[in-house]
Every structure is written in C-alpha cells, then in structure tokens.
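Re: beginner question about structure tokens

> Can someone show what the tokenized structure looks like for a real chain? I only ever see the sequence side.

Sure, here's an example I had lying around. Input first:
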Amino acid sequence: MSFKLYYARQSCAMSVHLALEEFSFDYDAILIKLRSKENLTNWFKEINPAKRVPVLVTPRGTITETPAILGYIHLLINNKRPSSFDEFTFCKLSSLNCWLSSTMHVAHAHSIRGDRWASSESSLKEMAFKTRQNMEDCCLFIENFVLNNSYFSVSNYSVSNSYMFVMTYYAIVDGVDITKYPKLFEHWNFVLERASTKKILDLHRIDLTTLGLR
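And the corresponding structure tokens:
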C-alpha cells in the first residue's frame, strides 16, 4: 500500500511525516510551499478544500487533519498485528492527539497566525505576548498528566510520540525551556535520537543547533 503525503516544512504535517517514516510505510512526500501560497491554488483546493496540510492520499481516498491521519496510521499498524489492538488504547492516543491539535497547536498559532482570531494591532500583540506562557502551561500539563501515563511512555513508540515531539519543537521555538520539564525533555531526546527523526528533521530543514539544543 502506497501513500502520498502533502506537507509543508516545519508544519504540523511533520508529525505525520515522522510516523510514516518511523513505521516504514511506502509513501511519496509532496512539498507544498505555504509562503508561495501553493495551498491556495485551485489544484490543491481540489485535494483539500480546507487549503491546509497535512493531506494523506490513500488507495481508498483522501484523509485530512493530523489527529485523523495519525489515527489511520495507528490502525494500519495494528492491522498487521491484530492480537495487540486495544480499543481503549486507541482512544487514549486519539484523546491526546486531539488535545495537541485543539490546545497546544492553537496556543502556538497565536504567535504566528493571530489574524485568524483578531485584527487590531493591540490584540495581535497580546496574543503573541501570551504565547510562551500558554505553551509553558501545555508543557506542564504534559509533564504532570500525560507522561505519567504508560500509554505514552518512552519505551513504546506510537503515533502520539511523533505528534508530541513536533509540539515540543514548537514550544522550544516559542521560547520555552523544556529542560525544566524532566519527563518532557526525556521524551524529546527519546524521539530525537531515532534515525527516522533525524531524516525528517533534515527534510524539514530544521537545524537544532540554532536553538541551543545540539
């Protein structure tokens, strides 16, 4: 089974990119240049009317939205080993992925896409100013509640590990010192050292030395 992944560099599509690579799926990655507004072209709107990435084209059709795509990948992984599938675990992973999408990613977006929610200069500045604090709150939530849960341990890689890694990267970009969160920092290094992660970071042109982490 082969897929097409439409992605933009350093976007949340990186979490899907990581999962596809980590679990050795056969896929082609097609870069969409957001700065050139390729997502607004007619040909791309035919692929995804919402005009955003990630988009995963499968033999059965197209799937959009990061939590849905990651859920699909998780189900495919478990189809290969049906005896290990557990409905409750799937829902726990989906719960975290939805929270990352609706809360942590939105908190990050306030600093770079504030015009989605406000138009006045003062409102845009206030949202940008609050971004780091909001991302720190998200990191604290992960530290205290998420990483105390065996479903997201560093010994059992899942699609949620990929998504959490990307959201942690966004937190770092927003000025959060993740070393203050020992479990989150351990998780970051756990994913970072994987061969698939290094490959995808390179494809997304992410140089961690500029963030003081390497």
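Each token stands for a local structural state, so reading them left to right follows the chain. The first helix runs from residue 13 to 22.
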